[in-house]
Write a structure and sequence with these properties.
Blueprint: H1 2-18, H2 37-40, E1 43-50, E2 60-67, E3 70-81, E4 84-96, E5 103-112, E6 120-131, E7 136-145, E8 152-160, H3 170-173, E9 182-183
Antiparallel strand pairs: 1-2, 1-8, 1-9, 2-3, 3-4, 4-5, 5-6, 6-7, 7-8
Main location: secreted
Family: Belongs to the calycin superfamily. Triabin family.
GO cellular component, one term: extracellular region
Amino acid sequence: MKTIIAVTFFAILTYAHANSGVDGKCQNKQGMENFDSGRYFTGIWYLTHAMNGSESTVCRQFEYKQKDGQLEVNAIKYKKKDKSEYFSFDNCNVNQKSDENGKFSLDCTRVYDVPDKANKNFHVERTVLKTDYDNYAIVYRCVTTKDGKSHFKENMWVLHRDKGKDIEDSSILGISKKDYSRSIKNIECKERQNP
């Protein structure tokens, strides 16, 4: 019995370490070669699959648009945890790193639609690993909070232009479907418009 507990504990530690950057820093993933930001940063993307996170982590929609010469990202997220559920709205300004293909950083403010949650400021590093611009994108995401607390999260996402899409031919995407434990197919995501 002690062996089973020890092996389980080791597996949990290994998983946690494998899913975090070195020393609490974002991983330096290789971005997509010849990335066309003009084609990627338009319209709406839906998060359909994630490697980790809560079940409702996939209930997100991102809209990219130009505002006063600045690229802006607006995101709507539905969160269900235990018996509570709420929406959050992210407003982010994008600063593309011109020297690295497919890499961009965002400074964001999150507003919740429930009174008991305070607004949050955070920084996001994203790297587009692969995309065909019209259907799917595979993205590495790393978040750090800006509230003085050391909070760090990273994930691998599959985005689609059509939220009903699945990872139909994962060999084309270069991923294994079983690695993406969170899927929009496994949860009911509620919809709400931006306030």
